[in-house]
Amino acid sequence: MSRHCQVTGATPGFGRNVPWSKKKTNRRFNVNVQTKRYWVPSLGRRVRLTVSAKGIKVIDARGIDAVVADLIARGRKL
């Protein structure tokens, strides 16, 4: 599963580990991604979304119908 939120579009960030010796190594800041199933009344079925923690909050605030309508308008397959 790729670390990508379908609602917010969040992707992993990249940076460096810097220990006491200052020998820098690359690291990856992953997005907190969850696979959630939502009932969408306008479609009359359940949809499975890969959403970040912030994406879940967006769905709670705006409603699943509005979020799914935006995803369909962007051309995302559900």
UniProtKB/TrEMBL annotation:
InterPro entries listed in its UniProt record = Ribosomal_bL28, Ribosomal_bL28/bL31-like_sf, Ribosomal_bL28_bact-type, Ribosomal_bL28_sf
Single GO molecular function: structural constituent of ribosome
May I have one GO cellular component term? ribosome
Region described as Disordered: spans on this chain? 1-21
Top-level lineage group = Bacteria
Q: One of this protein's GO BP terms?
A: translation
Which UniProt keywords are listed?
Ribonucleoprotein, Ribosomal protein
By sequence similarity, the record places it as follows: Belongs to the bacterial ribosomal protein bL28 family.
Protein's name according to its UniProt entry: Large ribosomal subunit protein bL28
